[in-house]
Amino acid sequence: AMIEESRIPDYELRNGSECACPTCRRVFASERAFDAHRIGDYASGRQCAADPSGEGLELDNRGRWRIKR
């Protein structure tokens, strides 16, 4: 069974390390994972990756994106 991706506002952030993107509404297990999903150059504007798994991220058992282990 595939894990369903968590999204805000349905998912309530539970601890200090979790964060969520106000743009794509995805939930991340860490600030590092959040940063990894933002792609592009700062000068021309960064954006959310269409597929976070292509940026070295994977879903954990709670549907949060995390750095691949």
Write a structural description.
A two-stranded antiparallel sheet has the order 1-2. A two-stranded antiparallel sheet has the order 3-4. It has a two-stranded antiparallel sheet with strand order 5-6. The chain has 69 residues and is α+β, with helices and mostly antiparallel strands. The longest helix is centred in the middle third of the chain and has 7 residues, at 31-37. 10% of the residues lie in helices and 20% in strands. Strand 1 and strand 2 form a beta hairpin. The chain has one helix spanning 31-37, and strands at 19-20, 27-28, 38-39, 47-48, 57-59, 65-67. The chain has one helix and six strands; from the N terminus they run E-E-H-E-E-E-E. The chain is globular.
Q: What is the count of DSSP helices, taking H or I runs of 4+ residues?
A: 1
- Structure class: alpha+beta
Order of strands, main sheet, comes to: 1-2
- Give me the Rg, rounded: 12 Å
Largest sheet: 2 strands, antiparallel
Q: Poorly predicted ranges (pLDDT <50, ≥5 residues)?
A: none
Question: Got a strand count?
Answer: 6
Spell out the helices and strands N to C.
EEHEEEE
